[in-house]
Amino acid sequence: MREIKIIFFAIGTFFGIENSSIFSVTTTVNIDTKQRIISITQENLFALSRSAEDSINIYNQLLKIGRPKDEVPSWRDEFKDYEFKTIELISDKNNNQLNAKIQLKYNHQKQLEDYAIDYVSDSNEYALINIDSWNISTEKGSLKENFWYFDSDISFTLSPTKTMPEAYKIHKTSLYNYWEKIKQ
After folding, report:
1. Superkingdom, according to UniProt (predicted)?
2. What separation in angstroms does the CA of 49 have from each of 64, 70, 120, 159, 178?
């Protein structure tokens, strides 16, 4: 089984944060395989916080990701050859939530393997492994056995918190207030 290096709904995985505790409630992914552009919208970023130590770790992870005073965040090594990479953290005051928009331009279709997306040359399609707990939905792909298959237009939404156990939900903390403090 291939290692999934970058998980679309776990923002820390884009920045080399191992065991990141920051996730999004909903993540929409669009990949234009002709232009080689990946657009990711992460809505309602949150973390699981059970202790003061967790709060400090969350703060430090968000600081590394957002880098409000720096021009360039510290992306993980897999992105060094990408033509461009951008992240924008957006405070949604009306809904008291923090959202993220990530855009990436990769150079080779093989780079999609870091996200568990393979090119299937026999059928000229792209395949994304279906992990039940990710709650993937799409109008562009079709589910065959354990993979979602897409033509050149890859578009899907992940909602991993839909099936989150109640024991975790009580520790779910919005990152809106964290970000408001960091960006000052």
Report:
1. Bacteria
2. 18, 26, 40, 20, 12
